[in-house]
User: What shape does this take?
Amino acid sequence: MALRSAPFLLLVLVAVALRESCFGASSHSMKFFFTSISEPSQGLPHFVSVGYMDGQVFTSYDSHSRRMKPRVSWVEKFGKEDPQYWERETQKARGQEEAFRDHLETLRSRYNQSEGLHTWQHMYGCELEGNRSKGGLWQYGYEGKTFITFDKETLTWVAPEPQAQITQRIWDAFPAQNQYIKSYLEKICIKWLEKYLSYRKETLLRTDPPVVTVSSKTEVEDGMETHICRIDGFYPREIDASWKRDGEVWLQDTHHGSVAPNADGTYHYWLSIQIDAKERERYRCHVEHDGLQEPLDVAVKVPESNQMGLIIGCVVGGLVLVCVIVGILAFFKRHQDDYNAVPMEERGHLAAPLQHERTVPA
Assistant: This one.
């Protein structure tokens, strides 16, 4: 779960900054993200490196721990078969950490920026389609925007900004380096992707059923209700989830997120709907997944504000009942003349219920 802490927040920054180049749907993919920030704050490390396999975090490094670490059980096998594997990966990451620090200083000077928070990011990886076709990318970003991208078909760099064209001219002057990047993306990366897949084979066979919960709230302005269906902890990634009204898929006034990975290799997803409270009983969150023996249909809940109203109503009703009981007891007290004749030491068990009823509402 460590990846949900500060380092993981930086990975989100990487994904947002380089979102234009994210892979589309593919059979299998391997990607690596790097982020360096000039002025870390609130406990964030200034450098983070993370590896993804099919959207699952499998390795990570940050400038706090200064160690490359496995994040899933199947990749730990590399360290068992090759005792120096994790040490080599650690040394590589430390070298990248120092290089990224220098790059930040160079770019800050090139953009004529003062000291402060600046970010330098890198993403590369490859994909293997079901038809054995191969793809890959190699891209850098600065300040949350694309800085420069490698075109492996032309063996050249593409620079969208004037400041990046300086880097473009320098890197294009080394064709051997560009040829190596192309070879890495199409051969070396694919080879490692297939090797990792062979180690992960047993995990691909598992199925983890989703945990489905529905939360609700009432919109004060128009009285409409918003219901959110949260689906968590499922594997494999493929899942079919939708809102249904009277058993039919309902798309109107619905929103949904993207299927996203958890640190433990499972996935999570959410979808919401806005409805009229009078039609609440007609809606269900419908979920189908390989980990389920049969589809789930989860009913919407009464919004918390409505539940509070019911609670308040019960309390008020209880107070009324107390008052009635007190009135009845007072009536009998006035009309039973022999009550005062009862000695005080024998009266305790009669007075206790009345005293109890009067103190409960307070």
Observations:
- The longest helix spans residues 304-335.
- Confidence is low (pLDDT under 50) at residues 1-26, 306-362.
- The radius of gyration is 31 Å.
- The longest strand covers residues 28-37.
